[in-house]
Amino acid sequence: MRQQAEEQEQSLKSQEDELNSKKQELEDLKQEEAKLEQQQRDSRDQLESLTKNLQDTQLQISQVIGKF
Q: Which H or E run includes 34?
C-alpha cells in the first residue's frame, strides 16, 4: 500500500513539474507574441511614414517639373 502511495506521489510530482514547465513555456510565448505585435505596429507606422514622405516627394517633383 505504501509503495503504491509513493508511486502516485511521484507521478503527481512529475505531472506538476510538467505543468509548471508548460505554464512557463506559455508565458514565454505570450511575451514573444506581444514583442512581435509591437514590432509589427512599429513597422506599420514606419511604412506609413515612408509612404507619406514618398507621396510628398512625388508631389514636389511634379510641381517642379510643371514649372518648366
A: helix 2-66
Distance CA(36)–CA(42), nearest Å, equals: 10
Which residue's C-alpha cell is 514547465? 21
Q: What is the pTM of this model?
A: 0.71
Amino acid identity, residue 48?
E
Start-to-end CA distance of the chain, whole Å, equals 100
C-alpha cell at 13: 510530482
Half-sphere exposure of 37 (CA within 13 A, CB side): 6
- Which pLDDT value is given to residue 66? 87
